[in-house]
Amino acid sequence: MRIFGFFLALLALLGAPLLGAYLAEKPIENLLVFPPNTTELTFEKAPFSWLAFMIMLALILLVMLPFIIRILRAQKTFEPISRKKYPFPWWGWLGLAIMLLGWLMAWTRFSWYESLQTYTFTPPWLGFILLMNALTFRRSGKSLITHRPVFLLALFTFSAVFWWYFEYLNLLTENWFYVNTGELSNWQFFWYATLPFSTVLPAVISTSELLKTFPRLTAGLNNFFPLRAKNNKTLAVIFLATGVAGMLAINFWPDYLYPLLWLAPTAILASAMALAGNTELFDGLPAGNWKHIFTLALAALICGFFWEMWNFHSLTQWKYSVPLVQRFHLFEMPILGYAGYLPFGLQCGLASILVGKVIKKSI
């Protein structure tokens, strides 16, 4: 059953966009390029719409405000937990130095560094990951580096494949594109991009581990509203079908359904894992415990802020072309675009669970 779930997810995640392109009578070969690199836009986008902006803002607030209100109300009765302070590890200072130096090199244009300027995005994230783990160790005496190093290294490997998949999906919507890639060939760009892509999962999961040491951030979410289903497998099938339908539909209306690029893969992966017997990410929901899900979403949002900030003045960078809401930017990202990081955090959580299962079996 687990092998079936894996192949079902793979078939849906890779096949649905291709089937959608076929049904929409779009050139399938456009989705078969390697690497899936969007460096220029091939179709025009719908212009900014106040109506679409307000509808999307209302939907975001509808989802997030209950959590925020719950947390704020719980602060009145929250009882701080006394924690033992552990020494800040030396490699945390190293991480801070690498992060700051990498940031400096990414945002400056020293002539002696010109030939390497394109490759400055990875160092800040390596330093960031070290720093997040050091802060986690300082607060809890544990971290991925010290207690789960094999898992952390596996996250780096899987992360590259993980984010290349979203580059593949971006061929459907062209919501972001890369500039100043220089004279890099396709293979050179593949290796150039794979290195920073490998830091995505380690960054989000390391940040999530740090956030867990701040229980005040999720106060009240351990007994929030319960989410129960009479038949979990039936629900998983429905969500799987909905995710696949969303993938298909993006091909027909990319200007209006591009948010499904973040929602549909979550539904497909979570459903396939549930059908294979793994519901770990959502096991707390029947009892009303939303702490883990909220922490992952917040971790991805925090990482998203730093991704966009460090990208802002980098030489080789990505820019956005988001239909209907391309206004009010924070760095290059339209402000409502940051909402996409919330479901992305759940995808990172699902991916980390898969990595953990693989590691457990192989050791």
Quaternary class: single chain
Question: Segments where pLDDT lies below 50 for 5+ residues?
Answer: none
**What is the straight-line distance between the termini?**
21 Å
Q: Overall 3D geometry?
A: globular
- Per DSSP, the total helix count is 13
Helical residue percent? 55-70%
Q: In percent terms, what proportion of residues is strand?
A: under 5%
Total DSSP E strands? 4
Placed side by side, the strands forming the largest sheet appear as: 1-2
Mean pLDDT across all amino acids: 91
In N-to-C order, the SSE pattern is HHHHHHEHHHHHHEEEH
Instruction: Quickly give the structural class.
Output: mainly alpha
Cα-atom radius of gyration = 21 Å
Summarize the main sheet.
2 strands, antiparallel
Describe this structure in words.
By secondary structure, this protein is mostly helical. The protein has a domain at 33-82 and 149-225 and 288-300 and 314-362. Helix content is 61%, strand content 3%. The protein contains 13 helices and 4 strands. The strands form 2 sheets. Strands 1-2 form a two-stranded antiparallel sheet. It has a two-stranded antiparallel sheet with strand order 3-4. β3 and β4 (333-334) form a beta hairpin. The mean pLDDT is 91.
